[in-house]
UniProtKB/TrEMBL annotation:
The lineage of its organism: Eukaryota, Fungi, Dikarya, Ascomycota, Pezizomycotina. It comes from the Eukaryota. Transmembrane segments: none annotated. This is Shikimate dehydrogenase substrate binding N-terminal domain-containing protein. GO terms for biological process: chorismate biosynthetic process; shikimate metabolic process. GO terms for molecular function: shikimate 3-dehydrogenase (NADP+) activity.
Length: 241
C-alpha cells in the first residue's frame, strides 16, 4: 500500500484473482521444474472480505444475492472489494463512491474488460444517493480521517445519506488505523447497521497468506486468539457522517 495496482509488474506471474482484480497485496514463491524461484502475485484482500463476513454472518452470502452492494473508495482495496462482492455475493449491481472521479473511471473501465457482465454504478451526487435503494452490503476502503477536500466531503455526505436509509444491512470497513473503531463503523452502528471491523478482515487476510507462505493453515484457536487481541484497541472519537 499504496502500490497494490502497480506492484504486479515486478513479479513473474499473477494468480487469476490478481489478474481480474488488477491489484496485488501478496507475493509468494514457488519453485519451477528447472529449479528457478518464481515470484507470484495474488490478492488475499478479497478472501479476507469474504471470510470475515462468512465467519460472523454465515447466511450473509445467500442473503445478499440479487441485492445491491456498495464500495467506498477507489484504490487497490476497492478493486478487491468489487471483485469479492461480485464473485461470491452476487449482487444485482455495485454502487461505488469515492473522492476522485478519475479513480472510479479507472475501476469501471478495468472491470468492463476483466468481468464483462459486471454492473457498477458511480454514485457521484447526493441526488443520486437519495434516489437509489439501500445496498445490502457496504465495504469501506478509505482512510479514517476527517473529510477536507471537496471530493472527500461529497463522498462523506453520500455515505451519510446511504446509512440513514430505513433499510439496514452490513457494513465492513477495511480500515483499522489508528483504530478499528473508525468513524464509518461508529456511524453505521449508530444508524442500526451490522458492522465488521477492519482488524477482523486483516486476520482473515493473514490466514489466507499463511496458506500460501507456509502451505498449511493456522490452528483455529490461534485465529480466535488473534481476533480477540486485535479487537482490544482504543476507540476513536466519532463525527457522524
Amino acid at each position: 500500500m499504496p502500490n497494490k495496482v502497480t506492484f504486479g509488474k515486478a513479479l513473474d506471474d499473477l494468480t487469476e484473482d490478481a489478474r481480474i482484480i488488477g491489484a496485488v497485496n501478496t507475493s509468494f514463491v514457488r519453485v519451477a521444474p528447472d529449479g528457478r524461484r518464481i515470484h507470484i502475485g495474488t490478492n488475499t484482500d478479497c478472501v479476507g472480505i469474504r471470510d470475515a463476513i462468512l465467519n460472523q454472518h454465515p447466511s450473509g452470502m445467500p442473503a445478499a444475492h440479487g441485492k445491491a452492494a456498495m464500495v467506498i473508495g477507489g484504490g487497490g482495496a476497492a478493486r478487491s472489494a468489487v471483485y469479492a462482492l461480485w464473485k461470491w455475493f452476487k449482487p444485482s449491481e455495485i454502487y461505488i463512491t469515492n473522492r476522485l472521479e478519475s479513480e472510479v473511471d479507472d475501476i469501471m473501465n478495468h472491470f468492463k474488460t476483466a468481468i464483462p457482465n459486471i454492473r457498477i454504478r458511480h454514485i457521484d451526487s447526493t441526488d443520486t444517493a437519495n434516489q437509489i435503494k439501500a445496498p445490502h452490503i457496504i465495504v469501506g476502503t478509505i482512510p479514517d480521517h476527517a473529510p477536507a477536500q471537496p471530493g472527500e466531503i461529497l463522498c462523506a455526505r453520500i455515505c451519510g445519506i446511504i446509512l440513514r436509509k430505513p433499510e439496514k444491512g452490513l457494513l465492513v470497513d477495511m480500515c483499522y488505523m489508528p483504530s478499528p473503531q473508525t468513524n464509518l463503523i461508529k456511524t453505521a452502528q449508530y444508524y442500526g447497521w451490522k458492522t465488521i471491523i477492519g482488524t477482523d478482515v486483516l486476520v482473515r487476510v493473514c490466514v489466507a497468506q499463511q496458506f500460501l507462505w507456509a502451505e498449511e493453515g493456522p490452528d483455529e484457536r490461534d485465529v480466535k486468539q488473534a481476533l480477540a487481541a486485535v479487537r482490544q484497541q482504543p476507540e476513536a472519537k466519532i463525527a457522524r457522517l
